[in-house]
Amino acid sequence: MTEHKQTAHINPEGKEIAETVLLPGDPLRAKFIADNYLEDVVQFNSVRNMFGYTGTYNGKKISVMGTGMGVPSIGIYSWELINIFGVKNLIRVGSCGALQDDLNLYDIIFAMGASTNSNYVSQYNLPGHYAPVASYELLEKAKNIADEQGQTVHVGNVLTSDTFYNADETAAKKWSDIGILGIEMEAAALYMNAAAAGVNALTILTVSDHVFKQEETTADERQNSFTKMMDIALNLA
């Protein structure tokens, strides 16, 4: 329950935020999920048009909220959801650019790890390098759900990048050569916030474009058509 807690970015006005929250980057994708998958939906946030909703899926309470783009944005929203509103399971549902030849448009990736070029980890003053990883509990459950549904998924390391337009034209190839499956912009910060607070996080991605094959989906397709990913994520509640 949220009681009457609020922040500068999330103001539920006493409405409930569930312990499990799906986190798409696009707030309109959050609205799409709420409109098409959840029952008894109540909107709990509209601050800065970062829409958040709580409803039920197969009788279980679940929330969905946009996070915006990039590490700083998801860093704020996920930190507040965890530390102010008591969220225990955070599932990012997003898109990525594929880096490996065996990946195609609409393929699903479970981000077991999230390498990054972000400096987000510096706040912890750790005496070495930290490897942001998913919650094994959520990862194992998601893989079991995918297997039961007959869905093929790719599990491995992704890159959380601070740079969408990279001046270094060789960067993508270097990450590909070391086995990175795809590039996105949020998972590493989510994993660090979750680990620091002792809660669960997982990133599920749909391939929206391929960096080397020059293939891509449209904005409408990214907002409305990533249904396989949604089916897995919702069943994690």
UniProtKB/TrEMBL annotation:
SUPFAM superfamilies on file: Purine and uridine phosphorylases
GO molecular function per UniProt: purine-nucleoside phosphorylase activity
Residues that bind a purine D-ribonucleoside: 9, 184-186, 208-209
Active site: 209
Swiss-Prot/TrEMBL catalytic activity: a purine 2'-deoxy-D-ribonucleoside + phosphate = a purine nucleobase + 2-deoxy-alpha-D-ribose 1-phosphate; uridine + phosphate = alpha-D-ribose 1-phosphate + uracil; a purine D-ribonucleoside + phosphate = a purine nucleobase + alpha-D-ribose 1-phosphate
Site label Important for catalytic activity, positions: 222
UniProt xrefs under PROSITE patterns: PNP_UDP_1
Entry keywords, A to Z: Glycosyltransferase, Transferase
Domain of life, per lineage: Bacteria
Signal peptide: none
Pfam family, one: PNP_UDP_1
Residue intervals of the Nucleoside phosphorylase domain: 21-228
E.C. number: 2.4.2.1
Record: residues binding phosphate: 25, 29, 48, 92-95
Coiled coil spans: none
Sequence similarity: Belongs to the PNP/UDP phosphorylase family.
Function: Catalyzes the reversible phosphorolytic breakdown of the N-glycosidic bond in the beta-(deoxy)ribonucleoside molecules, with the formation of the corresponding free purine bases and pentose-1-phosphate.
Subunit text: Homohexamer; trimer of homodimers.
PANTHER family xrefs: FI09636P-RELATED, URIDINE PHOSPHORYLASE
Protein name in the entry: Purine nucleoside phosphorylase DeoD-type
Origin species: Geomicrobium sediminis
Organism ancestry: Bacteria, Bacillati, Bacillota, Bacilli, Bacillales
Gene name of this polypeptide: deoD
